Amino acid sequence: MNPIPYGRQNITQDDIDAVVAVLKSDFLTQGPAISEFEKAFANYVGVRYAVAVSNGTAALHLAALALNVKPNDKVITTPITFAASANCIRYCGGEVVFADIDPHNYCLDIKKVEELLAQSPYGTYKGIIPVDFAGYPVNMEELRKLADRYGLWIIEDACHAPGGFFIDSNGQKQLCGNGLYSDITVFSFHPVKHIACGEGGMITTNNEVLYKKIQLLRTHGITKDPGLLHDNHGGWYYEMQELGYNYRLTDIQAALGNSQLKKADEGLNRRREIANIYKEAFKDKSYIIGQSGFVEGHAYHLYVIEVENRKGLHEFLRDNNIFAQIHYIPVHTMPYYKQFGWNIGDLPVAEKYYSCCISLPMYPTLTDDEQVFVIKTINEFYA
After folding, report:
1. Best exposed site among 113, 263, 322, 353 by fewest CB in 10 Å?
2. What angle do CA 79, 282, 137 make, to 5 degrees?
3. Are 143 and 154 in contact (CB under 8 A)?
4. Are residues 96 and 221 in the same domain?
5. Do residues 77 and 57 lie in contact, with contact meaning Cβ atoms separated by under 8 Å?
6. 3-state secondary structure of 18
7. Alpha-carbon distance 47 to 277, whole Å?
8. Torsion of CA 123, 127, 128, 129, to 10 degrees
9. At residue 52, what are phi and psi to the nearest 5 degrees?
10. Which pLDDT tens digit goes with each residue over 82-139?
11. Backbone region of residue 174 per phi and psi (left: phi > 0; alpha: psi in -120 to 50; beta: other values)
């Protein structure tokens, strides 16, 4: 059996043709492929505005800047995420406050967030960054109600969840990133994600003011828009109006992303098929402590199970050429965040989850035979 990773990109001839077409065109960056990708992605998630950026971390940073995060501003997020979800607040000098996770879905526990808010005077916290972990869609309607009670903004980190959705209180499907309940949503186009650009990200919002600010900050804070200029020396003239960044996506990456987007639903459906097979295979197994099972609207970037002797299983799988992964080491236990007073024991649900979790191979080109082999190997270890 060839090596089976936990995730893998799926590049087809259509993707290659799209990239080659850009390589033969007049623009490799700042050209028409960018706006084409933005419009297509906005349509895909049902949002008014989308801004393509260089990666998901840049998307998070720009979101925090657009929402005017300042030094010492307190922002709540989850410890079970990639570090960037928290780091974007630190980039702005803000203070990251971690709340524990819900053991049933591994996302930010809204009740724990409410406890934090209730314990402090109104205005202590500025915002919340929930993460659609593994592709599980956070109930943004419920979180929005809580945020509004305390005057908070929301950045939804949907890097795992393009195509994911939850059902709202009116029975309506709400796609991750549609901007109905979050101020800003961010996505990632890393190779193992649903849509691969090599590197890349997208920011979505329904707020025109935030949209224009993000566009400005993405490109050094520079504009050539005649309607925004303070002065105008001629057709060459531009102004730097904010301290911005070079967080642009290239046309090469945008062309790949746009091609990948066209088959995103096909890949998503396959991920859900794989998840359902895992669910049935592990049903009633004594070694399973917990698992994400199969959830409507889940985008299944990852399929996570919680098991006894996780380290032993991880090593046994590697010995059998199966490269499962661990998502994630709780961010509050990292040396960087420990310097701010966070310690092991502060968030027991997240820490217990980390001690047992393992992410199994999950990607659209995983074959039936490969998945059977993964399941068989796990059963052998616990036999």
Report:
1. 263
2. 40
3. yes
4. yes
5. no
6. helix
7. 32
8. -160
9. -80, 140
10. 999 999 999 999 999 999 999 999 999 999 999 999 999 999 999 999 999 999 999 9
11. beta
> Cis ω on the peptide bond leading into residue 245 (within 30° of 0)?
no
Same domain (yes/no): 141, 168? yes
- Six-digit token string for 167: 């059902």
Q: How far is CA 353 from CA 38, 80, 114, 314, 330, in A?
A: 36, 9, 21, 15, 9
The helix/strand/coil state of 85 is: helix
Number of domains in the chain: 2
DSSP label of 133: G
Instruction: Give per-residue pLDDT as tens, 302-320.
Output: 999 999 999 999 999 999 9
User: Is the omega angle on the peptide bond into residue 328 within 30 degrees of 0, that is, cis?
Assistant: yes
Let me know how long the chain is: 383
Alpha-carbon distances, residue 179 vs 34, 69, 111, 174 (angstroms): 21, 20, 23, 9
Query: 144-158, pLDDT tens digit by residue?
Result: 999 999 999 999 999
CB of 338 within 8 A of CB of 86? no
- Is residue 321 located within the same domain as residue 179? no
State the residue range of the domain holding 356. Answer: 264-382
Number of H helices, E strands in the chain: 13, 16
Place of tokens 């599980």: 136
Q: Which amino acid is at 38?
A: E
Assess whether 96 and 207 both reside in one domain.
yes
Question: pLDDT digit string (tens) for 250-263?
Answer: 999 999 999 999 99
User: Is residue 256 within 8 Å of 18, Cβ to Cβ?
Assistant: yes
Separation of alpha carbons 254 and 258, rounded Å: 6
> What is the CB neighbour count within 10 angstroms for residue 346?
15
Residues 222 and 269 in one domain: no
The distance in angstroms from the start CA to the end CA of the chain is 21
Contacts for 20 with CB less than 8 Å, ≥ 6 apart: none
